[in-house]
């Protein structure tokens, strides 16, 4: 059984030996120290740059991660650099190459060029590698100076995985010369096998159906790992583009890394897909996982964040065992490229490697021009000045795009045919952000960077399956944004200052009213205040009273669906679809496909009429330009608000 060492003990010395360098380990003459480095979920982030916001960003970028790789190589006599997939798609550079510039035979994709410059030894596929189709994938991989493996995607499926005709090589066995602690050279065979979630067949159905098939990850591992051993692999590393999830195995698991680590013959496991870090406290309570030691079922594992935010590192001490090698010690960590300070500012911990930047510089420049140029048009302005008091065009376009996407994703599933609703909230709506903190995209051209104004966060799309009662309660939670008002009284303050705008979900696909004379069912943080009250009235679907026992699909994001904001029906147990795409990407794709969008608010919700009652609210001063065009509500200026805001009045 391998010795499990913490990081400090490992660097201090393995098997009682003293390190010659503070960042290296001196092994005995029959021992080899092998360092395995991992990147995962790069999503085309070569530069430390946010293309949506059109400004530098110190928390991302392979060019930064490459500096850590350079340091590790300087520390280690023997090392391998591995990528764990999702490198080809995920930011505007990926879309620029796929949709704008194109990739001709012989061209090198910028992320591949950057990976070549860093010197990767191998990679596997992630689910996003299929987003642009198999032909594009083939052209991109042709430029790689390293092998890319994937065991569970087959062009032709045989009786067993070993009889499959796989899309790529299921594994590679590398013959490497390594140096032991005494300076002697040895030959070692290192096996690398890759896996991708089989859910790609749903996520990219239009590209994959009829062309390839996906097998279960565990089924393929149990077939190929013994074969790798038969072919002489001394050490086997699993490149698992699959998250750290349940320990209990189920057929077709998306996040299969825990049972995968238990497969006999696998010595170490690289994980990814979840955009998290391992070892870390995020996995403290997972069965089969030791988040302190960085092991899964006792085997070393790592997950290097996403977008180049971290580099995963596994240290292996290998000892000669007859004609082969065995692992006698290990340690795991994830090294960040930046740190967040107490004042929430970011400090970069490394600089970019110039050769990596140079490899993608021309396409970086092209991407900047691409994101600054229109990708579509809007025939109505997109603004959020009144997003908390009336149906709003900036929220409307998010809901429309989410519905469009989920309709496609649920085709051919057991959920197809259920009514699809869409929940979206305003992110830029003043508040603590100040009087300028609003979405404001004028009528006309829409550039990709404008999408950052529409959707601030890199959330991914989710869908939940809920009852009509849960839809109503979801809206009751949103209605906590408002103070209770007294009927017949003038000029009462409308908005609860403790309520955050990103928790004010509007659900598109139903119509409803909010009765402000009633107390709120929920408090600002989602705490239940009064289960008997009802602010949501006249709730209808297709012109008839909503059936509280009926079932609905609600399109939303990963934060909300997993319990963010504490919404009824969205506590993590109703998720039926976890999309591989960010909500931002979905909005961009929708705009590109439609050409011209018409994001006019359809006034599917409003306040219940209360004669003789008026309310006051504060918003940005620029709201004056749009006050006359808000559907279903009469809004009038009411002077200056505090701290630079403008005050407006609604007659209920």
UniProtKB/TrEMBL annotation:
PROSITE patterns: 5_NUCLEOTIDASE_2. InterPro entries: 5'-Nucleotdase_C, 5'-Nucleotdase_C_sf, 5'-Nucleotdase_CS, 5_nucleotidase/apyrase, Calcineurin-like_PHP, CpdB_N, Metallo-depent_PP-like. Residues 439-570 form the 5'-Nucleotidase C-terminal domain. It catalyses: a ribonucleoside 3'-phosphate + H2O = a ribonucleoside + phosphate; a nucleoside 2',3'-cyclic phosphate + H2O = a nucleoside 3'-phosphate + H(+). Its cofactor is a divalent metal cation. SUPFAM superfamilies: 5'-nucleotidase (syn. UDP-sugar hydrolase), C-terminal domain, Metallo-dependent phosphatases. It is found in: Cell envelope. GO terms for molecular function: 2',3'-cyclic-nucleotide 2'-phosphodiesterase activity; 3'-nucleotidase activity; metal ion binding; nucleotide binding. Belongs to the 5'-nucleotidase family. This is 2',3'-cyclic-nucleotide 2'-phosphodiesterase / 3'-nucleotidase. The lineage of its organism: Bacteria, Pseudomonadati, Pseudomonadota, Alphaproteobacteria, Rhodobacterales.
